[in-house]
Amino acid sequence: MTDTLTPELEAVVARAATAAPAFAATTPETRARALVAIADALEDAKTRLVTIAMRETGLTEARLTGEVTRTAVQLRLFADTLVDGGYLDARIDPADPDFALGVRPDIRRTHLPVGPVINFSASNFPFAFSVMGGDSAAILAAGCPLIVKAHSGHPELSDATAEVATAALTATGMPDGTFQLIHGREAGVAVLTDPRIKAGAFTGSIAVGRLLADIAASRPAPIPFYGELGSVNPVFITADAITERATEIASGFLTSVSGSAGQLCTKPGFVFVPAGTELPAAIQTAAGTSDLPEHRLLDPRIARSFDERRTTILNAPGVTAVLPGSIRFDDAGHGWATPTIVSVSLDAFRTSAADLVEEAFGPLSILVETPAGTDLAALMPEFYEGNLTGTLHLSTAEATGTTANTTELRALVAALSQQVGRVLFNGWSTGVAVTPAQQHGGPWPATTNDTSTSVGTAAISRFMRPVAYQNAPQAFLPAALQDTNPAGIPQAIAPAGESHTWGTRWH
């Protein structure tokens, strides 16, 4: 037992450590069946789980029902990814006596599970980024025992989801200790510091994420920590796009800002538009014709924080309310909000940047009106470090890449590509497709590691580490590296003799 763990936590970590070699040794097909069993069980328990989630989070039945489906789809996607085996990145360099630098030994490289992982679940996605969400699915798919620190905003739901997942894992024969749930921030920190834990994952605020990332990095043996923290997701809309479809853009913008009470890491927080366009008026019109009822924020702490940010933004010099919005507090301390949209000139935005650039976690967004001739590509590094997404709305003609401003737009795309993980065109950043090519990550403070993603099949690689085998007998190689390749895993083979032709095509 370590000095930092209570007897109860020691038992949890010990079970995970004991399960690690047995779970890592399971076949991809075996783990795939376990993931699908969890997906099926979650959908079977959907009605009961959604009822609990509605009470604890204030999110709507439709939103939560869809989120259970998304969670099941994530699990099934990883199941198929496991069986395909491409995620192992198997590479084989056969022995080559005529290698350009001398005799080359037989070298084969693949990826192995890192070991037990702790995942700190999110408040705003009680299914998709919580107990059995995307991070958990990736961790289990990689073959790593999983310890989830439940979010304090939905403890009953976390326990209920854990019961469903545990039963499915047990029924499919997974080792005891493959999955466990703990409660409490102190417990989570204690487990994160234990030397048997080999990686961490997190979705939440910048402050807490930075604290946990620093703890992971300051351990005697530092471990990787994959945190998704904060993002304001800037949007750039051209004058021609507004002229062409102002009503459509305004309606989509309002839907994106108000969905789930704006409590999404991909909410468009800032929209850069040319000064003097009709977009503010179109937003007011769209709000007048749309059903935008007040929506409960996740918990009283988040509501109070949003109220403070909203007040600061509304009182900043140069800020004008396009939609003033509202927030009220009920007797239980819960906040109920309607969307707040404000506008500010670029000069005033620069003057009040200290009050405006920080993320407002809730239904609020800022229109920044830019004068003609503004270097849009320079605005990203001026105001922001990193974000999950960046969006451009172009006219039909601009989308062809043949208009007078094409060079400027290409520069903006290049600038966005340097500072976000996903660049969108003529859409809205809320709604992250669960698909193999998805990238959900970005430079700090969007994530703590901008080379990884928490959505899409590449998410598995966070919880695996590369190992090379030199001159290993076939009987001692992982199946993915064997010549017989029993599972048909994709193998990248560098044939003997090719080293003498490297670079010749470029003469």
From TrEMBL:
Ranges of residues in domain Aldehyde dehydrogenase: 8-277
The UniProt record lists the keyword Oxidoreductase: yes
InterPro entries associated with the record: Ald_DH/histidinol_DH, Ald_DH_N, Aldehyde_DH_dom, Aldehyde_DH_Superfamily, ALDH_KGSADH
Keywords of this entry: Oxidoreductase
Pfam family, any one: Aldedh
Molecular function in Gene Ontology: oxidoreductase activity, acting on the aldehyde or oxo group of donors, NAD or NADP as acceptor
Protein name, UniProt field: NADP-dependent aldehyde dehydrogenase
